[in-house]
Design a protein that fits this description.
Blueprint lengths: L8 H19 L1 E5 L4 H16 L4 E2 L18 E5 L7 H18 L7 E4 L2 E6 L4 E6 L8 E8 L6 H4 L3 E3 L8 E3 L5 E6 L6 E6 L3 E10 H34 L16 H6 L2
Antiparallel strand pairs: 1-10, 2-3, 3-5, 4-12, 5-12, 6-11, 7-10, 7-12, 8-9, 8-11
Helix pairs in contact: 1-3, 2-3
Length: 273
Amino acid sequence: MPLTEQVTDAHLERLALERVVPELLSHGFCYVDGLLGEAAGDAVLNQVQQLHRDGALHDGRLAGSVLGVQLRRGRGDKVAWVSGAERGCEAIGFLLTLIDKMISVCASRLGGKEIRARSKAMVACYPGNGAGYVKHVDNPNGDGRFLTCTYYLNKNWDAKEHGGVLRIFPEGKAYVTDVHPLFDRLLVFWSDRRNPHEVQPSFSTRYAITVWYFDSEERAAARRRFKDLQAGNQLGLMMRRRLHRWRGRGASHPPSLRPASSMDDPLAMRSRD
């Protein structure tokens, strides 16, 4: 599938240096219109619509919910996670490559943060039945997400008729900012508590693609916390099983809570994986 309209590296660098970096630092968000152009934007839209038709999109979870616990109240979109390398996602991959290039130019100019990785792309559809997403923060608990980048795919969108506005509530400001989800528009904003935001009810099918870029140091710390939590959960489960066996044997005293050996210490076992 040829993408006839080309976006040059020089153009992306100008966008990064003249628009994205200054507006992030001064306002906390920035949006750029006409990122890909009509033909390439259409190619991305067609692939997203095909994912939707194929049933690849599933209920999204609320920000801050944990794996295995599906919290839907307050969020009405359906999502799919893609890398852009999948068959049928070539145009999405093209989009992600361009965003990667632009953010790589921004990275060293955003307060000394190291940005070395990002999430997969979240393809999202609000089905037009009044679905929205309540006010939330993408990264309220230091999970490593630093920048949120959302690319919109909605042609002939009229917010008065179709709704679906993304409203940002900048921290410490007396105003709000409304961003309409217009075709070929890229929105970039801080992912943390500086930018609470909501998606207002949508009354027409609304498509977007979002990726999150990570602050490497914060992401590494979040992974360490998650590993420690997993280890604690495993140790708690092991002790509950011991207590259950003890009760089953009718013993008069609980098992000794001795220090775990290298054979039954979840951390020791994990270190050998």
